[in-house]
Amino acid sequence: MTTNSAPADPAGNQTTALRTHLCGVLRATDEGARVTVCGWVARRREHGEHLAFLDLRDHSGVIQCVIDNKVDVRSEWVIAITGTVRRRPAGTVNPGLATGEVEVGECTVEVLNEADAPPFSVDDRDESDEPVRLRYRYVDLRRPRMQRNLRLRARVNAAIRSAMDRQGFCEVETPLLWAPTPEGSREFSVPSRLHHGSFYALPQSPQLAKQLLMVGGFDRYYQIARCLRDEDLRADRQFEFSQLDMEMSFASQDDVMACVSEGVLDAAEAATGERPPPITRMTWADALNRFGTDKPDLRFEMELVDLSTEFAHTEVRAFSGSHVKALRVPEGGSFSRSRIDSLVEQAKRAGAAGLAWFRVTAGDAAGDAAGTGAGTQPLGLDSPLDRFLSETERAAVLEKTGAKEGDLLLAVSDTHRIACSVLGTLRATLGSPPVGQGPHHYVWVVDFPMFDGVDAAGNPQAAHHPFTMPYAEDLPLLDTDPFAVRSQAYDLVLNGWELGSGSVRIHRRDIQSRIFATLGITSEEAESRFGFLLNAFRYGAPPHAGFAYGIDRLAAILAGEENIREVIAYPKTQSGADPLTGAPSPLPARALVELGIRTVGPPPDTRPAPPPT
Ligand code: ASP
Fold this sequence. Notes:
Blueprint: H1 2-5, E1 34-47, E2 51-58, E3 61-68, E4 78-87, E5 102-113, H2 130-135, H3 137-140, H4 144-166, E6 170-171, E7 189-191, E8 199-201, H5 207-215, E9 220-228, E10 240-249, H6 253-272, E11 280-283, H7 284-291, E12 305-306, E13 323-329, H8 337-349, E14 356-362, E15 379-382, H9 391-401, E16 408-414, H10 416-431, E17 442-446, E18 451-454, E19 460-462, H11 477-480, E20 489-494, E21 497-504, H12 509-519, H13 523-536, E22 544-550, H14 551-558, H15 589-595
Parallel strand pairs: 6-9, 11-17
Antiparallel strand pairs: 1-2, 1-4, 2-3, 4-5, 7-8, 9-10, 10-22, 12-13, 13-16, 14-15, 14-16, 17-20, 18-19, 20-21, 21-22
Helix pairs in contact: 4-6, 4-14, 7-10, 8-10
The structure holds aspartic acid (ASP).
């Protein structure tokens, strides 16, 4: 029962002017006590002519009250009950309920407020449609699941704050109305009433503000910051989200990782009761090679295998790419042909020219099967490609992947990046349990490349942001081989979700200019976009480094949820609407005039539905 899983009264005595006890805290030891409990009517059962059983609910749980059945109270009415705690008669104890040994008898009932019939049952077993849940979010929030999740999130926040305070960080709030942030996402803009035609940007993160705090001598800063990015919504993304944002001066990557780990592990312990082990590290190159992604899900194995050497001189065109990577799918040999075809399609969508596949079979009697090592059964490969493989290639495929009869082997031959990332996508599809399930596997991913991909003009693009410090020993490569330059950037990953990222920052103008030049940002453009930061750097910028991680994502996984909406009180739907309030909504003409704005759309039928009346 959910009512058992959280402490009934974590804040201690919650006696108020209207009540003596919370519903969920009453136990057999309270027998004989005269109590007043308040809450919502969860359920009412008639028992003969004179008696009714009423379950009264507040956030701490449910208590059974025995009332006169002439009292008119209905589902979700708000009432106060005064009565005496007594043991339930033998045979009627409910072991599934924390208060299941007792009930409140000799009751007087005071109706505090009547209620309309709820639009759905306030019960975790009754899952309604999400738009309906969000439209009546205030009813949905009464459900044990939402109570549990938001209270867990509050414990996460409290643990993080306390860890940061303990480590000497100072909480500073930064503006919501500000200048654009170079995080690379689309921004929300706010029109200025006093400066028609000009706009504030809502912060994608407090990145530049926190760097300026370092120049301002704040040394160790943190904030639970609300950030806004106008990007398509997904299970792990909302327009607005909360980050633990931090920055430190005179500190290295290791210092940042140690301080962040402390808060994250404290938060996990506060949420689950168990402290995870110290967080391990993996280089970006290793993560890509072994798991095909910079967000490795380490809850399961299925590591990628490199067959590039074995196929270096192959005659098979499908394997003639510069790199050949393979993935063993245990017991995937039973997949239907249409399921395999859909994997091939997925590989193509992810950027591969094709996907080779082999079912691992028992070797046939004719002896054309390859052995998998001394003393093991010979195995064969069932695939349209098999007849093109040489004996040594077939043997290498079986041996290096550790194939077993009944497995499916998948292989991509392409550039190193594509071969890895395509198989990484398939690995996640085929192996990842739902994100909130199973163990929690944290990992730091370090040594990211400085640049990733090129923009439309052919200039390298910053993998993190343009203020990230390269490793000193890689600086000479900036002119010769920029894509080989490693940055002092690091990510924190949990169960395949990126929790956050950070870096050591550039605090020297000469290095910053070289990075801008490599990115194709002219000094005029740098001046107009980040002039205030560059200017501040003239006035004594200490070496500094920082990090930010998403509290919504962390809380969702710790709560066992698949979607961050379940740990946010008032989230938006997939289309960015709020069914509760009807936001976004058109502005009255007068307000538009005041803001100096003339609109050109959208057509009326693309507007979100108005809120209920
Ligand atoms: N500002 C970065 C982000 O929001 C994090 C950081 O580098 O501190 O992703």
